Structures
1.
Amino acid sequence: MYLACIINCPAIRAFGKHCRPLSNIMTGLTELSRNKSFGGWQTVFSHESKVLGCTMKFGVYLPPTENDTENLPVIYWLSGLTCSEANFIEKAGAQRYAAEHKVIIVNPDTSPRGLNIPGDSDSWDFGVAAGFYLNATQDPWKNNYKMYDYIIKELLDLVNSNFNTQAGNQSIMGHSMGGHGALVLSLKNPGLFKSVSAFAPICNPSICPWGIKAFSGYLGPKETGQWEEWDATELVKKYKGPPLELFIDQGLNDNFYPAQLNPKNLVEASKGAGVPVIFKERESYNHSYFYIASFIGEHIGYHAQHLK
Ligand SMILES: N[C@@H](CCC(=O)N[C@@H](CS)C(=O)NCC(=O)O)C(=O)O
């Protein structure tokens, strides 16, 4: 009776392909919104995160498929400072290309929310919407500000157990702070992601104002030796694992370039470490989602090649 009721629920039937409604209910996902887009569905879910100790939202774009059982690869997108899951969904224009290449896109929020830790909303580049995709070690952040563990240990499993994915066939990309996150997550987990790309990433956070502020607060002083564990320019020097190419994209009219972003430091370090880099410089483009939307198709196409 209960099962029949769930299966016949119009909201669940209307959800469309690529979702296992029963397991969604069982694993505690709540569907917040669903919009048809390019033949597929742009959805937003919330769930109670054990790792972060708060309710989190994330977007899932489900492309159209021939049948309900087809498993598809996933591309993860990590957003930048001040963003929630909404910015990418509404501004990047990724749905068209995800539908074309038949890939699922998952995009989480950028920090824990709703905890009201003293000081978490005092500035736009630290605390809420500025989690930096690391595991904090300092009070009062260390119990909740663990975006690295959230993505690696919780979100990937949650996505693979609730959607028709090809588990293990996944790539990652991001913007600015999220570009830093994409690079760090792939360099720290050799082989976990088939490919990585980044728009205007913070490439050497240990030496730029955003990174120094975040690392000092979340990790403590540089002298503790923790900063280099979260800095792509340092991590690439000791990368050992399956071949990994770094696709770095940079607008040349970006007001944060080069001081906050420093892509050339990463390009040089990668060359020294024998890690190949594609470095694309885009004349006249700035840091905004207008820039991202202009090249997101190229990035999704790049990842789709690696996910075949
Ligand atoms: N608030 C900052 C800008 C922050 C910013 O540019 N954030 C980027 C990521 S680093 C972003 O994606 N913003 C949200 C948006 O453009 O929708 C400022 O006023 O300078």
2.
Amino acid sequence: MGSSVEQNILVTGGAGFIGTHTVVQLLKEGFKVSIIDNLDNSVIEAVDRVRELVGPDLSKKLEFNLGDLRNKGDIEKLFAKQRFDAVIHFAGLKAVGESVGNPRRYFDNNLVGTINLYETMAKYNCKKMVFSSSATVYGQPEKIPCMEDFELKAMNPYGRTKLFLEEIARDIQKAEPEWRIVLLRYFNPVGAHESGRIGEDPKGIPNNLMPYIQQVAVGRQPELNVYGHDYPTKDGSAVRDYIHVMDLADGHIAALKKLFADPEIGCIAYNLGTGRGTSVLEMVAAFEKASGKKIPIKLCGRRSGDATAVYASTERAEKELGWKAKYGVEEMCRDQWNWANNNPWGYQKKL
Ligand SMILES: NC(=O)c1ccc[n+]([C@@H]2O[C@H](COP(=O)([O-])OP(=O)(O)OC[C@H]3O[C@@H](n4cnc5c(N)ncnc54)[C@H](O)[C@@H]3O)[C@@H](O)[C@H]2O)c1
Ligand SMILES: O=c1ccn([C@@H]2O[C@H](COP(=O)(O)OP(=O)(O)O[C@H]3O[C@H](CO)[C@@H](O)[C@H](O)[C@H]3O)[C@@H](O)[C@H]2O)c(=O)[nH]1
């Protein structure tokens, strides 16, 4: 199972939602992992729980570094003391609404942070990167399922940072062909580790559907606002491609293995989704079934900027990465509920 030579991976944003789940899988696969995170949207308790999940032996292969990618010196310090075989780059801000009100914060954090990272990687001759992109780069897709070669467009400053960063990656790799870069376009990551020990813990009132439903289920919010019930979909609510965060984590392992194995990979994008669309109302029903809790809903107008229906074509990832999502909506809701039920206040002890 483990990689033959112990490869050392730098994981930026490794204390966050997708980062923690991926770090668990990386350690189990035999990789050595160094996290850099400024804890802007995460807590150290999440990393402690990763250690608890993988046990004392594998924990020895995990190192946490408090640092900010906007500060080149923080990245430099890490590269100066050890060699990295590749970087998985999760660190970034991701709240669409906040990015509209404060675009400079998003450009500074996501763009400057990533450019600093590339500069330092180049300096230390580490030229393999897995980057967290997003289905947001498809904008309002004209056709579904979304294929990787569709035209790309951004709908807001957050989306623009992902689009720019994809373009930056393509330019760098074109100019310096020794770079190998995988751009992973996540659809809607949900669920949690099956242990219920790690999961998503957004600060403040959640913007995204599943964390919001979860907070209704545990009594932190009174009801769910369903944004849009007049879409031309099966039940009038919007359709998305929800993907279990553990499937997503495994997608990163597959991408990493491809990077190491394929010198010709260049810079390439892969969708990570299930290829299935689920409506908001279907998701509510699935969560009610998994949790045994009633989720009161209020039908509201559409949320501005939302697409009607988005889901992935998974063909390229299946064919070239040998990766396919294993879990369906039932397991996503089961694991999300297990996390919520055991940690109603997330990583906080109590409010
Ligand atoms: N969760 C989603 O719905 C989703 C969908 C598509 C793409 N993505 C992308 O995936 C990545 C990970 O998302 P997530 O859901 O795990 O988010 P998250 O906020 O839970 O994790 C991001 C981590 O990066 C850290 N971070 C942010 N800026 C940093 C900086 N300048 N220096 C160091 N650390 C920094 C945060 O503290 C946090 O721990 C992000 O780039 C996000 O844009 C997420
Ligand atoms: O309280 C809520 C929250 C959401 N929704 C609806 O649920 C659907 C899904 O919304 P959400 O969970 O916010 O996901 P998206 O808007 O699809 O965007 C997510 O998925 C994109 C693609 O991965 C990422 O780029 C974004 O960062 C991430 O927020 C949409 O129709 C929303 O209008 C509600 O009805 N009520």
